[in-house]
Design a protein that fits this description.
Number of strands: 12
Organism: Spirosoma soli
Structural class: alpha+beta
CATH class of the largest domain: Alpha Beta
InterPro entries: 5'-Nucleotdase_C (IPR008334), 5'-Nucleotdase_C_sf (IPR036907), 5_nucleotidase/apyrase (IPR006179)
Strand content: 25-35%
Number of domains: 2
Distance between the termini: 50 Å
Helix content: 25-40%
Strand order of the largest sheet: 7-4-10-6-11
Order of helices and strands: EEHEHEEHEHEEEEHEHE
Pfam families: 5_nucleotid_C
Shape: globular
CATH superfamily of the largest domain: 5'-Nucleotidase, C-terminal domain
CATH architecture of the largest domain: Alpha-Beta Complex
Radius of gyration: 24 Å
Protein name: 5'-nucleotidase C-terminal domain-containing protein
Largest sheet: 5 strands, mixed
């Protein structure tokens, strides 16, 4: 595939003389390919060890799956798997239990394959360098978070079960046994992108507390899948019904 650079010739224009003005412009396409710009063997040899190291890292098999793991709305096996992974890894890093974990649906950029799941697979799912942060929020803000993402069936959550009616969350049951009460506080592991108001979640900019745990979401997922691989048991892609529509 050729890549093109746009060459623009501007006639009669001078940045130094304000009395001039643009009178004409022309454009030509200059094709750049392996013929016009052959590979530099010296550069290729210089980069070879770095490329080999990158390939080795990206091709590391972390675990296996018995089937393709896909995201979905209002729920999908990948939604559940990723948020459960984040909840586990965030709690370990945080040093104490966290109530739930959240991911923005649009931030999940790919599905996971059947068979080998490699480091490269995780990079395809989560290519962004988003940090995992822990927010402490009131029950009222937690309800607002759930409602915000439930509207449009984009609620991707781990650590709780929710029923949605007409775009609003009507009931919440945390897997740790807690119930959602307006005046109580809850901890949520999530992307710094959402915590800073991404996905129109500006209401999260003023939580009770925000704690950065210096852990990339992608690294948390890689660590989780590597741990799963060490168990010798493949992943079975299933949804557990945590999100239901009434």
């Amino acid at each position: 595939m050729k890549k093109y650079f746009l060459l623009i010739a501007l006639a009669g224009l001078s940045a130094c003389n304000t009395g001039y003005h643009l009178t004409n412009r022309t454009a030509n396409r200059i094709g750049v390919d392996s013929v016009t710009a052959p590979a530099d063997s010296g550069v290729a040899n210089f980069l070879k060890p770095y490329r080999q190291g990158l390939d080795k890292t990206m091709n590391e098999v972390l675990t296996r799956s018995t089937g393709r793991i896909e995201k979905g709305q209002p729920e999908g096996p990948l939604n559940d798997l990723l948020t459960d992974a984040l909840l586990q890894q965030a709690s370990q890093r945080y040093g104490k239990p966290i109530d739930c974990a959240h991911l923005n649906y649009g931030g999940i950029r790919n599905n996971l394959p059947e068979g080998n799941i490699t480091t490269g697979s995780i990079f395809e799912v989560m290519p962004f360098d988003n940090q995992l942060v822990v927010l402490t929020v009131t029950g009222t803000m937690m309800q607002q978070l759930l409602n915000h993402f439930a509207d449009g069936n984009k609620l991707v959550i781990g650590g709780l079960r929710a029923k949605i009616h007409e775009g609003k969350v009507q009931s919440v049951q945390f897997t740790n046994g807690r119930t959602l009460q307006p005046n109580e506080t809850y901890t949520v592991a999530m992307s710094d992108y959402v915590a800073e108001g991404g996905d129109n979640a500006g209401f999260l900019k003023n939580p009770v507390k925000r704690e950065n745990i210096n852990y990339l979401i992608r690294d948390a997922l890689i660590d989780y899948f590597r741990q799963q691989g060490k168990t010798g048991q493949p992943i079975n892609p299933l949804s557990d019904g945590r999100i239901s529509i009434e």
